[in-house]
Amino acid sequence: MSDETYVVVGGGLAGGRVAETLREEGFDGDVVLVTVEDRPPYERPVLSKGYLLGAEPVTSAYLHDAAWWRDHAIDVRTETMVTGLRLDDRLLELEDGGTLAYDKLALATGSWPRRLDVPGADLDGVLYLRDMPEAERIKKVLDSGGPLVVVGAGWIGLEIAAAARTHSVPVTVLETAPLPLQRVLGDDVATIFAELHRHHGVDLRLSTGIARIDGKDGATVSSVVTSAGDVLPAAAVVVGIGAEPQVDWILAAGLRGEDGVDTDATLQTSDPSVWAVGDIAAVDNPALGRRVRIEHWAMAHDSGPVAARAMLGQGAVFDKLPYFYTDQYDLGMEYVGHVPDVTTTDVVLRGDATDASEPLAFQAFWLRDGVVEAAMHVNLWDTGIAPLEALVGKRVDPVRLADTSVPFDQLGV
């Protein structure tokens, strides 16, 4: 029997997976998971996908029900905020003035939405999608018929727009860049997403920001004024302009990192008793040969078990390629790899991606000097992501890559 205490900070998917795996791997010491939320661990993708679409209940996001955590002797402490870390003493400082001792610690504090800084941003009805209560508020707006203004045409913003249009809610998306997802996908593929949303009735206003939000009686959102001076009626404004890793008190304690917490391939930080997982982990990833920090579901899902096994001395290594997916209207997409700078890559399309009025079915590849850095497929579920993943890191002939008659196993050069 172990007399050690392993503590996990964070009630999202990454933290939940750490605690879950510790028990699966036979650790019989104390496991404590602390979360600022008022409920046990859950994952986020359901909130912007199945739940807003009306296809899944919000409760489907939970990793396990409350009884599972009790049955596995995992002490889930809800509504508990950590404010400090004393590495030498192996102590967490809590907002209520107490402390929590640990022998080993996993940090899974995640990211929080970047806040909008314009007049009226504090009005009731300015919403962000990060947790269950926020998702439930957005769902009420969709059920009431809107209209909705979405600020930011990233993944979250576009998924919310797609959910709104699925409910026949009028929606306007404001994006300061010339194209949605431009920084991630590049012009060619970003244009496909712009056409997709316009085909489904989204009022997509590009190179357009938000000047202010006006409120009814100065309290509740009633309209949005764009940077072009247009006035848009709004029952609510949903903001999706990026996220920031929650690492202030972590880095203040002395752990190394800048935009996140630096870890080695085992997810161990600069302190040998502390690991970092999920959004905040800037991992020295051997699959990429460089340090990266990834804010996607797969990172949380996969890094938690690796950290748990590393905490148990099993030599686990995080060597997976970054992966994410999205569902928008009849478009289902999977993406694997990592592109540090999309402006310096060549994009190769394989298949027909020209008609947004039909369900799209194609693949896209991002090449640097002939080497595949990332790949994605849209609606090609028979092929799936596996053969694309096998091409990441390989040198290919771009002409043959674009030729659908050339089998994948004959593309490498």
From TrEMBL:
Which Gene3D superfamilies does its entry note?
3.30.390.30, FAD/NAD(P)-binding domain (3.50.50.60)
Q: Where is the FAD/NAD(P)-binding domain?
A: 6-304
Q: Which UniProt keywords apply?
A: FAD, Flavoprotein, Oxidoreductase
Q: What is this protein called?
A: NAD(P)/FAD-dependent oxidoreductase
One family from Pfam that matches here is Pyr_redox_2
Q: Which organism is it from?
A: Mumia zhuanghuii
Query: What GO molecular function terms would the record report?
Result: oxidoreductase activity, acting on NAD(P)H
The Reductase C-terminal domain covers which part of the protein?
323-410
Q: Name one GO cellular component term.
A: cytoplasm
Its needed co-factors are: FAD
